[in-house]
Amino acid sequence: MKLRLALIGFGNVAREFSRLLLSRREWLLKERGLGFKVVAIATRSHGSLMSEEGMNLERALKLREESGTVLEYGPESVDLSTMEIIKGCSADLMVELSTLDISSGRPATDHVRAALEAGMSVVTANKGPVAFAYDELSSLARSRGVHFRFEGTVMDGAPVFSLVERDLPGCEVTGIRGLLNTTTNLVLGEMARGASMEEALAEARRRGVTEEDPSMDIDGWDAAAKIAALANVLMGARTNPRMVDRTGIRGVSTGDALEAAERGMKHKLIASAERFGGFVRTRVRPELVGPDDPFWSVDGTSSAVTLKTDLMGELTMIERNPTLAQTAYAVFSDILLITDALRN
Amino acid sequence: MKLRLALIGFGNVAREFSRLLLSRREWLLKERGLGFKVVAIATRSHGSLMSEEGMNLERALKLREESGTVLEYGPESVDLSTMEIIKGCSADLMVELSTLDISSGRPATDHVRAALEAGMSVVTANKGPVAFAYDELSSLARSRGVHFRFEGTVMDGAPVFSLVERDLPGCEVTGIRGLLNTTTNLVLGEMARGASMEEALAEARRRGVTEEDPSMDIDGWDAAAKIAALANVLMGARTNPRMVDRTGIRGVSTGDALEAAERGMKHKLIASAERFGGFVRTRVRPELVGPDDPFWSVDGTSSAVTLKTDLMGELTMIERNPTLAQTAYAVFSDILLITDALRN
Question: What ipTM describes this predicted complex?
Answer without folding.
Answer: 0.95
